[in-house]
Every structure is written in C-alpha cells, then in structure tokens.
Amino acid sequence: MRWFHSGGIFASLSDTTPLLIAEAMQAARARGAVVSFDLNYREKLWRASPGGVERARRVLASIVEHVDVLIGNEEDLQAGLGIPGPTVATSTALDPAIFLSMMDAVVKRFQGVRVIATTLREVQSACRHRWGAVAWMGGDTYVSPTCDLDVHDRVGGGDGFAAGLIYGLLAGETPARAVNLGWAHGALLTTYPGDTTMATLDDVRRLADGVSARIQR
C-alpha cells in the first residue's frame, strides 16, 4: 500500500464510518502509506445526525489527526474544523490569500499535516466558471494557472483535482507540477457528464503544460 484516501462525506454517513476511517488510516500509516483526506464538509449531512455540526467538528478533527495530505477550502476549514479565518466574502473566489492565511493555524493544530490543497472556483454562471488551485506544502505555496471553463457537469471537479494531485505526488513530480496536474484533471472532468473521468493521462499532462486539451489526431 502506498496511499490511503478518504473523505468527509463518508465520515458523515453514520456513527461508525468515522471509526472505520480512523482505523484504516492508522493501519495504512503503520505500513508506511501516505494518508490523505478531503474534508468535503456538507452541513446538511451532519445536521441530519445526532450532535449535528458540533459533532462534525469533533469527528473531522479526530480524523485529521492521522492525515498527511489535507484537501479542503477555507470554508471547509472554518466550518468543518473550526479553524479561524477571515470572512470569505472579503475576497474573490480565485484569490488564494484567505486560504493561505489560515495555514499557520492548521499546521499548529494538526502537526502531522504536510500538504494542504484546494481548488479555486469563481462561478460566473451555471455553465461558465473560472478555475484554479492552490497548495501549501511544507511551508511553500504553489498556485496553478487559471482558466475559463465551459462546464457540462460541475460535480466531481474537486475529486478530479484530488486525484490528479495525488497522482502527481505518487509519481514523484515536483509540487508545482502535482498541483497543475490536479488543476488540469479537475478542469477536464467538469467538461464531461457525470463525475467519472473520461480524460487520459496525456490529456491531463497537455493541459497542465498549457497545451490545448483538444483531441490530438
């Protein structure tokens, strides 16, 4: 095993799923695997269970104690973990400043976290978005390019980013390259129906390199 990944939606489904996640993370770390977690904070899911949002913070924090790579935006960090931060409305969605301003508080509280990353999305309309990504890795920050997306289905873009980022880190790419691969894969995924990728690795690499994602014949 080289990498173990889970997320906040699974954690919210029952009283036992968080325990299963923590147990699996501990087993993975014992075998030398990298452990990652996507906060994916969904208030409606947590409110449907006993303890509500207060329990969500306790549960998610207990999971993040085992995590090396954390994925989640500034709203996830504030609402899901109780990390203090400025009001999101004070900046545009593509400005990483708010997210990056919270890093010291995150790593002070969760000292095992080595990487924190998120997508940046500015919704101009249902079918038109501006798209970017940012990551903090060991004290350094990496910001992707930005692009305009003609969105077919926005569901899965964040998961696509996580998959591309994890692939890049597993493949030994530089941190900047790994962020760009995540950004490129998430962007491509929003142009497909559903939340299952249709992108090839070559498609992702070309877009990450700034080359058109059009079909190469």
Structure write-up:
Strands 1, 2, 3, 4, 5, 6 and 7 form a 7-stranded mixed β-sheet that branches. This protein is α/β, with parallel strands linked by helices. Helix 2 packs parallel to helix 4, helix 8 packs antiparallel against helix 9 and helix 9 crosses helix 10. The chain folds into 2 domains: 113 residues, 3-Layer(aba) Sandwich (UDP-N-acetylmuramoyl-L-alanine:D-glutamate ligase), CATH 3.40.1190; 99 residues, no CATH class. It is built from 10 helices and 7 strands.
Main sheet properties: 7 strands, mixed
CATH superfamily of the largest domain: Ribokinase
Architecture per CATH nomenclature, i.e. the level-2 architecture of the largest domain? 3-Layer(aba) Sandwich
Number of domains: 2
- Helicity, as a percent range: 40-55%
Mean pLDDT: 92
- What's the end-to-end separation, in Å? 37 Å
Structural class: alpha/beta
**Dominant shape:** globular
Low-pLDDT regions: 213-217
Q: Indicate the proportion of strand residues.
A: 15-25%
Order of helices and strands: EHHEHHEHHHEEEEHHH
Give short descriptive properties of this protein:
globular; 10 helices; UDP-N-acetylmuramoyl-L-alanine:D-glutamate ligase; 217 residues; alpha/beta; 7-stranded mixed beta sheet
Describe how the helices and strands are arranged.
Elements: E1 3-7, H1 8-11, H2 17-30, E2 34-38, H3 43-47, H4 52-64, E3 69-71, H5 74-81, H6 97-101, H7 103-109, E4 115-125, E5 128-137, E6 140-143, E7 147-150, H8 157-170, H9 175-189, H10 201-208
Parallel strand pairs: 1-2, 2-3, 3-4
Antiparallel strand pairs: 4-5, 5-6, 5-7
Helix pairs in contact: 2-4, 8-9, 9-10
